[in-house]
Amino acid sequence: MQRNFDDLPTWLQRYRKRGVPRIGKRNFAHVQSDKIRHAAIKKLPTLKAQIIKLSALALFLFGTSATAFIFIDLYKSISNSSLSIADFSPDSDQKPPVDNYDGRAVNIMVLGIDSRHGEGNRNFGEDEGLLNDTNFLMHISADRTRLQMVSIPRDTLVTIPACRLIDGTYSAPFYAQFNWALGTGSSGDPKNLAPGIACVKNTMEELTGIEIDEFVIIDFNGFQSIIDALGGVDMCFDKDLYDPLSALDIKAGCHKLNGFDALAYARTRSLPDDPTGDIGRMGRQQELVGRILHTAKQKNIITDFPKLYSFVKEGIQAVKASPQLASLSNATGLAYSLNSIPNSGIQFATMPWGEAPHDPNRVIPSELAPDFWESIKLDKPFPVGTEIRDLNGKVTIVEDPQAKTGSKETSPNNENDLENFQDPNE
């Protein structure tokens, strides 16, 4: 159903004419024996032997108590980050909870939220509403040989379906850009995050025809925390990058980006030599996420318990996730399976799009989109003709395996420098 922009709710009116660039205490009972038994006299252990035994006991008690404390602390962090949207599902019948991902494909909705609400987020300017500005569909193949990250342009014109609101009523379906779905379900109120996320999920499922299993959402402050917990990410640039709107100021060369600079790089869509706006920004975000995954694999975080504990705790505290994905057992099992995916199996792509007929500032799915989404739905590789990006940012075109010609490929800025880059602080 198409809706006139003049009928939009008040909180959305600010966007109707905005030109969007492309883009217990325990009781111990003392029991006294009725009979006193006199044990045979034994030789007392030496002082050295007593010290060794006591030391061993102390180490054991310290180790077990410390481990228990760590897991209790981690469990609390995970519990506080769980966010359920089941009450706002359009279906009356609820799906049984997923407690094991083994042997099946998993589709995860990953959202970056443009919001100035919450701790640390007010530092990024005036509040502009509640928008799902960064939208990924992450597909993990059943055989764990592929992890496919698909960007959906925020300015894609779609039908936002009827979404259940916090008061139990439903919004009216209307035709608008994709990143309005969060504000529609939440009525623009960050306190209503659950119905907002449910609305984005419903919209993504209607757009793609793919059932979403889980979700992860992250705001500005959370993104910084994850980068910093990872110790930064290495990236190289062949020119200075400056954008005061996103606080981006990075000189040409190779750098280890901290959370603040990485966020600025992920947010910018106003670089002087890049007129593509949001489309160009999605490519930079894909490259940055690739460097995050590459760094995590390179540092063997999964196999090093202190690193795993530190990173998982920071990560869980930085995001909101669906209850099943916030489960320690499920999250850990999935993380181990992802660690087995080869670098060549981690790929990034963008939904096939074209310019909207009556609005050059917005896009629509192209004629290639149905086959693109169908390949993911059927748990198959990207179709022929898809432009994909790897962990290092190299871009190639998927070709017919029967073709004799080589694939077209491009490289990110200073790729060779990045491969040879060594952080002087390491």
Descriptors for this entry?
426 residues; Aminopeptidase; three-stranded antiparallel sheet
Please provide a written account of the structure.
- The chain is of the alpha+beta class.
- It has a domain at 82-234 and 275-381: LCP protein (Aminopeptidase, 3-Layer(aba) Sandwich), CATH 3.40.630.190.
- Helices cover 33% and strands 19% of the residues.
- It is built from 10 helices and 17 strands.
- It has helices at residues 47-81, 181-186, 193-208, 220-230, 259-267, 278-298, 305-318, 328-339, 369-377, 415-420, and strands at residues 106-114, 131-140, 147-151, 157-160, 174-177, 214-218, 233-237, 241-243, 248-250, 253-257, 319-321, 346-350, 353-356, 359-365, 387-389, 395-397, 409-410.
- The strands form 6 sheets. Strands 11-6-1-2-3-12 form a 6-stranded mixed sheet, sandwiched between helices.
- A hairpin with a 4-residue loop joins strand 8 (241-243) and strand 9.
- The chain is globular.
- The protein starts with 46 loop residues before the first helix and ends in a 6-residue tail after the last helix.
- The relative contact order is 0.14.
- The model is unreliable at 20-42 and 120-125 (pLDDT under 50).
